């Protein structure tokens, strides 16, 4: 199921605003990610191989988990129109097939003169942080997002 879209403009953001997405990781998610990226490491695809690793079972690609952060940024906080500038990632623990990852993105800082938002990003499984980091995104203003608003002096038209 795809996340519901929510559009926030720079003016709508405030420090502390957060959004959460929960996603159960399926075998087909991992296989699909391997097909798209070409990362066919058997620790992700072969139960027989993965059983002999310290994890004991197949694990999801770390960047698949990180991609769930992108899903929040692009669909909910800040949402459509946001542009990634940078992302740091700290991989803390594995994500296994069947785990439900809770992705939380929180506004940590706003830089008005550049229309940038620094976002704290955390992915957890059953309360354990499996990935964390920060994203820097450019967020459109209402006027930038609505060309008619620009022609009206920078104010969005009233509904």
TrEMBL record:
**Which CDD domains does this UniProt record tie to the protein?**
R_hydratase
- List the Gene Ontology MF annotations in alphabetical order: lyase activity
Q: Which residues form the signal peptide?
A: none
Top-level lineage group: Bacteria
Identify the SUPFAM superfamilies for this entry: Thioesterase/thiol ester dehydrase-isomerase
The protein depicted here goes by the name: 3-hydroxybutyryl-CoA dehydratase
As recorded in UniProt, its EC number(s) are 4.2.1.55
**Keyword line:** Lyase
Q: Which InterPro entries does its entry note?
A: Fatty_acid_synthase, HotDog_dom_sf, MaoC-like_dom, UPF0336/Enoyl-CoA_hydratase
**What broad taxonomic lineage does this protein's source fall under?**
Bacteria, Pseudomonadati, Pseudomonadota, Alphaproteobacteria, Hyphomicrobiales
What species is this protein from?
Methylobacterium adhaesivum
Q: Ranges for the MaoC-like domain? A: 22-109
């Amino acid at each position: 199921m795809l996340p519901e879209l929510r559009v926030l403009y720079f003016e709508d953001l405030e420090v502390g605003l957060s959004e959460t997405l929960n996603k159960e990781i399926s075998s087909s998610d991992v296989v699909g990610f391997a097909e798209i990226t070409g990362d066919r490491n058997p620790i992700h695809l072969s139960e027989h191989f993965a059983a002999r690793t310290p994890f004991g079972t197949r694990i999801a690609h770390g960047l698949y988990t990180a991609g769930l952060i992108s899903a929040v940024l692009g669909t909910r906080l800040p949402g459509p129109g946001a542009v990634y500038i940078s992302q740091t990632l700290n991989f803390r623990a594995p994500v296994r097939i069947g785990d439900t990852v809770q992705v939380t993105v929180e506004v940590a800082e706003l830089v008005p003169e550049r229309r940038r938002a620094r976002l704290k990003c955390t992915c957890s499984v059953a309360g354990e942080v499996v990935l964390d980091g920060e994203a820097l995104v450019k967020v459109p203003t209402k006027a930038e997002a609505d060309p008619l608003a620009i022609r009206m002096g920078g104010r969005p038209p009233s509904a």
